[in-house]
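Translate structure to sequence.
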């Protein structure tokens, strides 16, 4: 089982998403997305290579979808770590610059 690391930018993305969903759609919807993300994180610890590769973002960068959001992560095989880098709306243009938080 891989170790899960959620970066500060990804944690901030999730907090923003849940706050926005809570304000616009209600607490139940925000809670459902929170649960969906947690299920995805659990799956990634068991199957870290399950996401689609995105070599344009980095050699080992992968994505998974919790519609309409895209979870961008990297599986670091050397120490069997799944690092959640960012979470973004699927309509957003995702670039290496975005991953670096700039």
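Result:
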């Amino acid at each position: 089982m891989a170790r899960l690391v959620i970066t500060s930018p990804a944690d901030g993305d999730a907090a923003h998403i849940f706050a926005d969903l809570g304000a616009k759609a209600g607490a139940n919807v925000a809670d459902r997305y929170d649960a969906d993300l947690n299920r995805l994180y659990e799956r990634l610890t068991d199957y870290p290579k399950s996401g689609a590769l995105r070599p344009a973002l980095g050699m080992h960068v992968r994505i998974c979808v919790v519609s309409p959001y895209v979870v961008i992560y990297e599986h670091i095989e050397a120490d069997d770590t799944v690092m959640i880098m960012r979470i973004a709306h699927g309509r957003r243009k995702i670039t290496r610059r975005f991953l670096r938080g700039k």
